Structures are given as C-alpha cells and as structure tokens.
C-alpha cells in the first residue's frame, strides 16, 4: 500500500497582493505554488488595491471565516473633485468639480462625520448580493437598484497630507493621503465617495494599500514572486495564537473536547468571540466560542 505523502503544511500565508490581481487570482496562483486545491482567503481585496491578503492552506482554511471578521488597516489616496462610476480610479469619471477652494477645516469636519459607528452604503460595483445576484453584475447590466446601508465602525480616519493637483481633464483637485482603521465589511472607496459628496465636490479612491488584517501586518507579507521561490507558511498553531485569545486545557479536558464534550469555560472568555484551545504541550486543538458558559466548537484541529 502506498503511503500518502503530504507536502503542503497546514497554515496561513500572508501575501502582499499586487495591483491588478483579484483575490481569486491570488488563490489560484497559490494553489499552483502550494500544490493543493485547499486554499482560501480571509476577506477580498479589490483588484486595484495592494497589500495584506491572508490565505489559508489545507486545514487552516477552517480559520478563515473567523479571521475575516477582524479589524483592518489601510493607507490610501482620496481624490476630491471627481466622482467615478466605481468610486475608485478603475471607473469612468461621471462628474468633475473644482476642489481647490476646499479648506483643511472642511476636510477634517467631513472626516469626523465618517469616524466611529456609521451607516455605510457599499459601492454599487461591490460583490454584495442583492436578491441573490452580485451587485456589480446588476450595475454592469445598467439596472437601477439600491443597496441598503450597513453598520460599520471606523476606529481611526486620519489625513497625513493634502496635495494640490490638476487632473488629466484639467480639473483642479485635491489628493488626500489617508490612513483608516476599520471593521470588517467597510468599503474605503465608499468613504472616499461619501467624503467628496459631503464636501460638495465629489470624490473617489485613487490608491489603496492594506497594511494589516487583525494581527497580521505587511512586514510579515511576501510577494507572489517570493512565495514562488520559497513558500512561507505560518503554522496553524502560531496563526491561531496570534489571532485569538488562548485557553490551555489539561490532557483530560483535551480528550473530552476532542470527543465532542462541551467543556465549562472560564468566565474570562464570556463574550470574547472565537477562542483558540491548546493543550499543555502547545498543540492547537480547536477553535471554540462560549455559549451559555460552555465551549461550543467552531472548528476542531486536534
């Protein structure tokens, strides 16, 4: 009998996504590099955007849905003075207004309105499903439709620089270099659109780089070329320890947990969301969530 030889380790790969690639393109490329079909991503990144894209390989794909819910951080450039069909530089310009008279005080006031817990309407060319159909498909077909506003949290929205510029069509515009820390599900191009609308001159996103997803930062990311040369996989136990609260259990409780018994959880984990369970030897056993004082399994790895 031939023994199955697994070359690909379980774990996360932190990719520095290049511009022009969809998240699915990166997954497809990683399937070739890692020589496995079991690859997924934790939250999409628009084709125009670059930066941190978290991929899971083999059993680590079971972590991805929980990682996708974590906080994100971005650096971007917002152009005031032009609106586009897609709210970013990929779409055709739909209006242009001289933005040279917009003051820094007005910009700061507009940003303050878009900070904290807000209701945001995603871009019409987003991947959100409306009655089972992707929003961007409806938009491409020229449909008239509305996307309901959704609650998002903007923890930080800061302007680093304001630059005067002249667009290709001769419009005097302002380019804002910004950083944003936000909850999952936030659209940075929608922030650009809404800031421009509030200031009366229109706005869109011209550049975007994601610098962090949860605990995973750009300094840990590798380009696809680097990964092609040497596949760098963060072991699943290390990835879980970085992203979730850690709960260590003894050997008896380890066995019970792996046999499907719902263990009593310490009070400190109440309302903590997903918790990574390790045995005393440091083996990653499961991802659980507190439910009525007991550990409800989300994914088992032990």
Automatic annotation (TrEMBL):
Pseudouridine synthase II N-terminal domain mapped to chain residues: 32-188
Keywords (A to Z) from UniProt: Isomerase, tRNA processing
Uppermost EC category: isomerase
All copies of domain tRNA pseudouridylate synthase B C-terminal, residue ranges: 189-232
TM annotation in the entry: none
InterPro entries to which the protein is assigned, alphabetical: PsdUridine_synth_cat_dom_sf (IPR020103), PsdUridine_synth_N (IPR002501), PUA-like_sf (IPR015947), PUA_sf (IPR036974), tRNA_psdUridine_synth_fam2_C (IPR015225), tRNA_psdUridine_synth_TruB (IPR014780), TruB_C (IPR032819)
EC numbers on record: 5.4.99.25
Keyword tRNA processing annotated: yes
Active site: 46 (nucleophile)
NCBIfam families, alphabetized: TruB
Task performed by this protein: Responsible for synthesis of pseudouridine from uracil-55 in the psi GC loop of transfer RNAs.
Protein name per Swiss-Prot or TrEMBL: tRNA pseudouridine synthase B
Provenance organism: Streptomyces pluripotens
Gene coding for it: truB
